[in-house]
């Protein structure tokens, strides 16, 4: 542990390997890293590391320069937690240093005592099998481990015929001092592999198969063979030790990979499963990676090549079979798809076999529930088919699927095809006629899905020659290439390596690419709109004087935290609304993390307008609806073409209501809600309603707010009730004090009486505030009326009929019912006022109180009554004014 040697952390790191001192060659090697390095042996220091082993493919038939190396660093069990943390950091530093030298090294800290007791388990992921394996891992260790330094395995000293009596024999060797304890390390026996572990080992190999399928096929089938044959046949590590004890030391008999192959060959031949045996042979051949159809690279063939030649001699393979496998680096999508189908079928079969075997014998996996969940999610993400999911076809089968030449063809361009709205991808297609005699690499319903598949699987690169046969779509090649560039920017491939934590949680969408109007001209049939932009109608959702929605189609490509890619298209019906509903619902389901959204559009002349507008809209919606950890209940008003949409959130669902006119929109916003729901106008909605936009920003739950603005010919009045509901009216000009005070007194009277009739506490009653509005320097300013004087009026009281269909009036003790006077009740009241000389005829005629029946309240479904009461006031006030004028 020296500062000049790679991997140094601190002087407190445990160091020293049992029984080891560096020789002259090692010390000379150390000096190549630092000329000033000097080794000082510490005789009194107790080594903290018991042994160091390499295990896996090192030194075997399957080893190559590109192989990784797994190290078991076996430390003293008495080391405390802090010491182990420092040692782990040093091991990680050495691994990183080795990687910089071109060697993939994985160092695992091992506590032999804890491992023997079954407690040494790391988290599943990376190179660790977590809780999935113990005896299977030990079985592999004993037949592949190379002792680099330190203590040798006590297992070596137990004869194979006495393996079942391992514990007592090992105890005897140590207690009677046949061997010194400081010379050996004991991991226990591997002869009995519990069936429960075979299930976990199979699942672990399925996990590994996602990156190295051919290597995993061998180990997955070995788990299956063990499940069928144990305990009637020995595990491979016992066979290995038996050969050594019998003096059989040639590599052909002892090579760990050949031992696996021969075990599987015998197992599959006995079952007559020759197709699976052929896959095992293929997997072994590809793992060894000695290309027998080509001459050896060096002057002399390697021992591995010579041994492989002897093995394959009786396989009956043709030269073309060797040539195909040797050109694995050149395999393209069609060959990879064929291989993937065979591999997935085998992996699925093996998994089903182990699972059914476990159920048959009532065996529970020894994997922890956390590891099972982790593994299940990764398998699900890789193999599960879902609607819109873009398949990843190359899980470690070939290094690259890049094509030199690709052709995209629409169904309407095919000569002998049935046509239709689908897209096909071909290799080296010169004309549409050739498509009738070739099998497409891929066929999809939408172009967005096809382009996503090409990009995600690496078929298309900047060097690929791309051609397009668009048929009747009107699509052009620059638009397709632009869409592919947008995909490359949003989802660079190869995708970065996923951290293990990704599968510890449920998946969430992280990135969304929206491609607008792919192959669609929004000005089709309206070419004049592309050349003229009316200044106040540059909104892409209500463009020009025709208020045209320029969003005709949306191709949505999304990537989630498990690196699953999905493609879907919104085109038919209310395209934009369908997307917004899906997007907002998604955000509501994963409020902790907002999906990152990028928008691209390729429509000539308006691409930037459309992309910017949709990017703004998505951002605005997220900003108003969502806050960390919650979703706001509000109503968002969006104007699309000549329609209005109100977006709202209730009962954990987003809802959209379409209104065909501004009048119907305001009627909708006047309806009472069950709880406070703020109204937010989209930045382009109702452009003439500047005052309303300013008023809505001041809405507060539990407050009734009335705003008055004097206009040249009328008063503009806006009411926002305690639940956020809205009422707009224009009233005839009259004295400000008389008008405002009359409305103030009316509301105080009716709401005060209703509060007495309700069970609501007095301090919970809505508070009434009135504001004078004015326009100053282009902005609306609101000044609250601090107090309003009482005004003397000719008082009229209104009351609704029991069914809520009509209103009766009373004045000066007289009743003017709808039953008696019909629609002329206001004229009758004014006529009475005119001839009643004892009344002050110059006083304004005002509604001062109103009684609303229970039936009328039920019609509104409860909630706030301020809006219907003010609607009643405004309607009757206007009728009385009209009667006075007549």
Account of the protein in words:
The protein contains 26 helices and 30 strands. The chain is of the alpha+beta class and 886 residues long. Strand 18 and strand 19 (643-650) form a beta hairpin. It starts with 23 loop residues before the first helix and ends with a helix.
Secondary structure layout:
Elements (H helix, E strand, L loop, with lengths): L23 H8 L17 E7 L13 E7 L5 H20 L4 E6 L1 H5 L18 H10 L1 E5 L1 E2 L12 H10 L8 E2 L9 H15 L3 H17 L6 H10 L5 H4 L1 H16 L2 H15 L14 H10 L6 H8 L6 H28 L8 H15 L5 E2 L14 E6 L12 E5 L14 E3 L2 H10 L8 E5 L7 H14 L18 E8 L37 E7 L4 E6 L4 H15 L6 E6 L5 H19 E2 L2 E2 L2 E7 L2 E8 L2 E7 L2 H9 L7 E4 L8 H7 L6 E8 L3 E7 L5 E7 L3 H22 L9 E10 L2 E6 L9 E7 L6 E5 L2 E3 L1 H4 L3 H11 L9 E7 L2 H6 L6 H20 L1
Parallel strand pairs: 2-3, 5-6, 8-11, 12-15, 18-21, 22-25, 27-30
Antiparallel strand pairs: 1-2, 1-4, 7-14, 8-9, 9-10, 12-13, 13-14, 16-17, 18-19, 19-20, 22-23, 23-24, 25-26, 27-28, 28-29
Task: Sum this structure up briefly.
The chain has 26 helices and 30 strands.
């Amino acid at each position: 542990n020296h500062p000049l040697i790679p991997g140094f952390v601190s002087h407190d790191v445990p160091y020293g390997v049992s029984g080891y001192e560096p020789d002259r060659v090692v010390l000379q090697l150390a000096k190549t890293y630092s000329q000033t390095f000097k080794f000082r042996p510490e005789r009194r220091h107790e080594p903290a590391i018991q042994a160091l082993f390499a295990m896996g493919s090192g030194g075997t038939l399957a080893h190559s320069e590109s192989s990784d190396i797994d190290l078991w660093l076996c430390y003293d069990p008495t080391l405390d937690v802090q010491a182990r943390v420092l040692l782990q950091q040093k091991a990680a530093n050495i691994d990183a240093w080795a990687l910089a030298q071109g060697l993939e090294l994985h160092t695992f800290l091992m506590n032999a005592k804890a491992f023997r007791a079954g407690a040494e388990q790391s988290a599943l992921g990376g190179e660790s099998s977590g809780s999935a394996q113990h005896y299977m891992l030990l079985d592999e260790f004993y037949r592949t481990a190379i002792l680099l330094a330190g203590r040798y395995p006590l297992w070596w000293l137990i004869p194979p015929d006495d393996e079942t009596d391992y514990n007592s024999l090992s105890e005897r060797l140590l207690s009677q001092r046949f061997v010194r304890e400081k010379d050996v390390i004991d991991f226990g026996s591997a002869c009995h592999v519990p069936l429960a572990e075979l299930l976990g080992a199979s699942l672990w190999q399925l996990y590994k198969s996602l990156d190295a399928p051919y290597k995993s096929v061998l180990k997955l089938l070995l788990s299956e063979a063990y499940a069928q044959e144990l305990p009637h046949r020995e595990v491979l590590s016992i066979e290995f030790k038996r050969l050594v004890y019998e003096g059989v030391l040639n590599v052909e008999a002892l090579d760990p990979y050949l031992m696996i192959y021969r075990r599987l060959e015998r197992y599959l031949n006995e079952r007559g499963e020759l197709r699976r045996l052929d896959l095992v042979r293929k997997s072994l051949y590809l793992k060894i990676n000695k290309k027998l159809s080509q001459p050896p690279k060096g002057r002399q063939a390697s021992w591995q090549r010579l041994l492989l030649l002897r093995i394959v001699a009786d396989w009956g393979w043709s030269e073309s079979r060797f040539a195909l496998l040797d050109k694995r680096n050149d395999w393209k999508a069609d060959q990879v798809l064929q291989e993937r189908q065979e591999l997935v079928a085998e992996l699925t079969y093996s998994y089903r076999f182990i699972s059914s075997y476990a159920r048959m014998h009532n065996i529970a996996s020894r994997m922890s529930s956390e590891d099972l969940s982790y593994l299940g999610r990764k398998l699900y993400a890789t193999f599960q088919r879902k609607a819109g999911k873009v398949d990843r076809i190359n899980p470690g089968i070939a290094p690259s699927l890049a094509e030199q030449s690709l052709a995209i063809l629409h169904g309407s361009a095919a000569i002998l095809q049935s046509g239709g709205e689908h897209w096909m991808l071909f290799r080296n297609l010169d004309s549409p006629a050739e498509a009738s005699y070739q099998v497409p690499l891929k066929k999809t319903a939408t172009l967005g899905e096809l382009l996503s598949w090409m990009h995600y699987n690496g078929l298309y690169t900047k060097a690929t020659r791309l051609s397009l046969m668009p048929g009747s779509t009107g699509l052009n090649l620059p638009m397709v290439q632009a869409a592919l560039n947008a995909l490359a920017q949003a989802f660079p491939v190869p995708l970065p390596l996923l951290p293990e934590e990704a599968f510890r949680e449920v998946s969430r969408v992280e990135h969304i690419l929206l491609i607008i109007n792919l192959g669609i001209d929004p000005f089709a049939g309206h070419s004049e709109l592309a050349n003229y932009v009316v200044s106040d109608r540059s909104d892409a959702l209500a463009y020009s004087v025709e208020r045209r929605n320029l969003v005709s189609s949306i191709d949505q490509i999304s990537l989630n935290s498990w690196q699953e890619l999905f493609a879907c298209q919104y085109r038919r019906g209310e395209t934009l609304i369908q997307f917004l509903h899906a997007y907002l619902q998604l955000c509501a389901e994963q409020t902790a993390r907002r999906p990152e959204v990028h928008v691209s559009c390729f429509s000539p002349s308006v691409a930037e307008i459309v992309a910017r507008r949709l990017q703004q809209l998505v951002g605005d919606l997220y900003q108003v609806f969502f806050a960390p950890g919650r979703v706001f209940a509000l109503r968002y008003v969006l104007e699309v073409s000549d329609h209005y949409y109100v977006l709202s959130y209730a009962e954990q669902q987003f809802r959209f209501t379409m209104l065909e006119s501004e009048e119907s929109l305001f009627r909708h916003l006047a309806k009472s809600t069950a709880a406070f729901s703020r109204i937010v106008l989209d930045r382009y909605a109702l452009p003439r309603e500047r005052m309303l936009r300013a008023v809505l920003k001041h809405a507060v739950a539990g407050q009734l707010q009335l705003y008055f603005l004097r206009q040249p010919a009328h008063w503009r009045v806006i009411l926002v009730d305690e639940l956020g509901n809205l009422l707009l009216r224009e009233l005839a000009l009259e004295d400000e004090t008389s008008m405002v005070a009359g409305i103030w007194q009316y509301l105080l009277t009716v709401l005060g009486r209703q509060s007495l009739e309700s069970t609501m506490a007095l301090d919970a009653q809505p508070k009434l505030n009135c504001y004078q509005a004015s326009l100053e320097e282009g902005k609306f300013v609101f000044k609250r009326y601090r107090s309003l004087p009482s005004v003397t009026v000719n008082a009229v009281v209104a009351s609704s009929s029991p069914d809520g269909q009509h209103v009766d009036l009373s004045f000066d003790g007289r009743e003017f019912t709808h039953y008696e006077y019909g629609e002329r009740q206001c004229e009758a009241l004014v006529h009475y006022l005119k001839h009643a000389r004892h009344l002050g005829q110059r006083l304004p005629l005002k509604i001062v109180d109103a009684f609303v029946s229970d039936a009328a309240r039920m019609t509104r479904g409860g909630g706030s009554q301020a809006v219907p009461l003010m609607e009643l006031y405004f309607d009757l006030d206007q009728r009385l004014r009209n009667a006075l004028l007549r």
